[in-house]
């Protein structure tokens, strides 16, 4: 680790990466390689002797890039976005340069304190209730992903109720969500040992725009209580993965509160939009939630990973996740003067992730971040309009944010209609010119067009629609 | 995300980071700030308007750095090392630049395939059994930390046994480890719902060099079986955190096998040394283990985080951790042609971490990596010699790798001796010139001197010893 060699090589890498962005549209968005392609291109063992950086970079270009699905391409419209930005990238560089492991306050006080401060900033920008600020009994923490966020709060809620009714009652605990809730909740339940038959996946409907029905929730709770089960956790979503459905937080929160249920709000994707006053109403009711999560690494210009979680009662997290081995004891921790984030998360070690979020907030400012969100929502609105103008297509679910759910109409039976849309998806993605993904809503195979890559401009949306129309025409002719 | 602005700003950041390394010895190693220091230096809310990069970097220098504990300083001897290197740093940069989310093969085939290949490379360099290679039924995966590694295999083992005896038997499952096992196991047990009274923490002893006793294990298993409990998981350690104790894998593996117990080997720190033939014998017996873990981010020049986990039966992991939501379905996965690493880990999303490990292996080569390890072990040997030459000190546990456990002798009672060593630790760390940490062995407060920062040279070790001697002299005079 010679600082001058670092300087020389890292400058080379900067140019390599800047060139990557400059030419990103020359790559197929969705990698077109076949499974196992890379093993044929690389040796079977690690080299004994050192190799040159030039050779490695040349291999990245010729062997790695063909296998990359380019999430930063302006033509990436699949899943939800995973933003990279100059500020986010610089933050990652700095964090990797300092390369400290911030499990306890003492192992780098700035890492813990900056995280507390920046999550307070973000909480204020989202107009979250003061209970979520680090200055009270709650606070924010950066998790790797929304999966880890929902897992740690599920564990906190599980242990809280088991402390009062006894740990042998695990088999009685019931978790509530909708059939639109992200699979991360199911995984968290598997990990936490919640019995699968006690995971209530409440059915949603197109007439409710796929939102969780408070009535269905109430009924399920009443039934569960009547058979001696223990309702303890509800996951509500603001902006579901399939269709950006928004669960009615106010009504759900009331039911949760009446029944002593931990309410977690998953706004992994749509949370970012709530820094704009005109979208903040989607969070109304979050005041009554026990925990709230949004992914800054999705649609908030912060490189992956950076999932922001806030809780009202940090002691519940700490009771579930803390250990106190001798080799980590230190004065500041023992005197309870500090936050040790190791006790708020699954892993022990943690990176300095607050740096990148801090740099995003400072280098762009809230005004530009709002403009960024609004522009993507406008572009999605444009795409929706284009779909509406072509009578061969239909919009499948109402658009609220930057995702459009649509499909090709087909006069045959449901199965054929689904197959046509599946074929259209494959055909479009095989062009390598755009990448979109799909879902199924009310048994309808549905195409998802998610705007959100930082490089996406109006022309990319217009071109994407042209590609979709052309592929649809070809497909319909072949039937 | 303009590529030319990225280029300009990132070049600035490279110089900032290279300068940081150049001047790293000018900072106190252990941050000397007081709890809450940063809140007074930063505004209460995020800025509305954008700020300049210069201002942010100036704040990093004046406000963040004083709160950083400099893990990359050549004078960092605390805990275990967390290596940064040019190759590791470049790999982080590239990964942050591509910024893809590799949960499924299709979302970037190169990310999954490079990870499989590079972990096969590392398995071969460690001479792990072929069962751990991805070409068979097992394979390697990069986890964030050793905590996550032990958690996922504990879950796999838990669910495997519960599938055969029924999920209501959770309260009967017993986990075995020693009192030297890392606290990550305790945390994993808390998460997995293993009852605390079924976590057997077997006592170790100085006469066994703090290694887990096969006899004690056998006896515990026999007793547990006799009362109807179900032994199912054993965590053995090669290189414990307190003192680098090595559990006798061969004997333990036999007992585990005879009782159908999942054997996990945690070599988070010492595993790196086993790429040297002369240290490989510490892993003898790993052939019979079900899973094996070593942290490339500790002592293998790969920036945090990069914890390498291998399993023999990947299907056990997948059965515990997979979910299959509609919005992630794709041809390659449905045809079972590919590995989807989302089903081998807690989170859904994952970074392109194999890049940095690949770059470390290629830019240094195994020969240099071996020389790197040997040099640190030699330096630790030198430190041990220096301690031995000063009759005021004693070595507390035998040195096997690059950690020296030692303490100041004190003629008074045990409590006073412990207090003197505690005071010595505080005094030394308060100088800001070196940072060491501690543990307790057989009730003795013990100082830990872990060599392993890439910048550490002989002069740093010699100087560190001088500081320790001087502070000890001052302390002893004051008594």
CATH class of the domain at 101-351 in chain A: Alpha Beta
Could you tell me how far the N terminus lies from the C terminus of chain A, measured between alpha carbons in angstroms? 62 Å
Radius of gyration of chain A: 24 Å
Mind telling me which CATH architecture of the domain at 101-351 in chain A this is? 3-Layer(aba) Sandwich
Shape of chain A: globular
- Main sheet strand line-up of chain A: 1-7-6-5-4-2-3
Q: How much of the sequence of chain A is in beta strands?
A: 5-15%
The run of helices and strands of chain A is HHHHEHEHEHEHEEHEHHHEEHEEH
- Give the largest interface: A-B, 151 and 151 residues
Molecular structure report:
The structure is a homodimer of 479-residue chains. By secondary structure, chain A is of the alpha/beta class. The first copy, chain A, has a domain at 101-351: Aspartate Aminotransferase, domain 2. The first copy, chain A, is 43% helix and 13% strand. Chain A contains 14 helices and eleven strands. In chain A, the strands form two sheets. Chain A has a seven-stranded mixed sheet, with helices on both faces. In chain A, strand 10 and strand 11 form a beta hairpin. Chain A is globular, with a radius of gyration of 24 Å. Chain A starts with a helix and ends with a helix. The mean pLDDT of chain A is 97. At the A-B interface, helix 1, helix 2, helix 3, helix 4 and helix 5 of A face helix 1, helix 2, helix 3, helix 4 and helix 5 of B.
